[in-house]
Amino acid sequence: MSPRRELALALSAALILAIGMGFGRFAFTGLYPLMVGEGVLSVNGGSLAASANYAGYLLGALALARSPERLAPLLCRVALLGTLLGLAAMAVPAPAWFAIAVRLLAGVLSAVALVGASVWLLHVMQQHRGAPLMFSGVGVGILISAELIAGGHGAGLGSPAIWLLLAGAGAVLALLAWPALGRPAAAGTVHAPAPAPAFAPMPAASLLLIYGLAGFGYIITATYLPLLMRGGALSPLQAWAVFGLAAAPSCFFWHWLHLRLGTRRALAANLLAQALGVILPVLQHSAPAYLASALLVGGTFMGTPTIALPAARLAAAKVRFNMLAAMTAVYGVGQIVGPLASSALYQLGGSFGPALLAAGAALLLGAACTWQPARAAASCPR
């Protein structure tokens, strides 16, 4: 296959994730403060909508854990069309329960997009080298949607009109991705998988604990960052755009660092940097602190699965359950608990500070769990 076609396939997969994840899953973060300001949602209603979205993602990922590869193009089409309809549905004037239901469905569709695009590119089309570019689509989608939200808000549009704007822009991106899904599968020749990294696998229990803590740790910032910044000198939407801008290339960096340092050290570095980004807004309420938080958390949250999921594949040989499904489950549980805990702590004290500190502590605990006793470290590679 020519390099140009390989690039086209990876870009199509990236666009699917940009729509299904960047738009369908994370555009709500940028619009959340505007919807609260308009009285469309309360802080508590928004937290329930966020948790419903993450619950939908968990349900969708588990339901598709054993879906056949031949259905991957269909899954991608369903995710694209369903996400566009979900974006448009958020413009409908309705009670909070409607928004919560739509966000639940959007979560399911984001999982369909992730599973469908990954299986289509990596297994059906056998383009393993395109994985970092594909996952960068999440950050690109966050960046584009944030700029559209900022532009719409600056033009005086309300949240319903901005949801429709996002649906229209998503439709344009979907048209660019759609043709590649009709291409025939790669020839029957099975390409050899990439050589396994030269480091010992981590225990499955450690990976599951760390990944669940990471899901809880990042999601509070990824849900509430623009809301935290209301009334400050820095535009919350531009800070959210920085979050996406940092996420887009981060997969390449963390993949490289994983190969250089091994799972334990790369994961520890990732979680420590992420913890610093999460707690910065608590330590200092200033535009530079919020901007640094967006850069650090945006530049690390996609790096966590980039490191942890390949490590989980190595650990899977030593367990009797589906390790990747279990990883998806614990990460999803962490993402569901995060907004619920944040909402409860906010109602008690009227501040997101305690929730951010709890999230930072979870990430620090995850980093500590990567530690390996000196005797064991001396007897095995990285």
From TrEMBL:
Pfam families xref list: MFS_4
Keyword Chloroplast: no
Keyword match Membrane: yes
Record GO terms (molecular function): transmembrane transporter activity
InterPro entries: MFS_4 (IPR010645), MFS_trans_sf (IPR036259), Tet-R_TetA/multi-R_MdtG-like (IPR001958)
Organism whose genome encodes this protein: Pseudomonas delhiensis
Sections of the chain in a coiled coil: none
Primary residence: membrane
Keywords from the UniProt entry: Membrane, Transmembrane, Transmembrane helix
Subcellular location: Membrane
A single GO cellular-component term on record: plasma membrane
Topological relation to the membrane, as annotated: Multi-pass membrane protein
Protein name: Uncharacterized MFS-type transporter YbfB
Residues annotated as transmembrane: 48-65, 74-94, 100-121, 133-155, 161-181, 202-225, 237-257, 266-283, 289-312, 324-346, 352-371
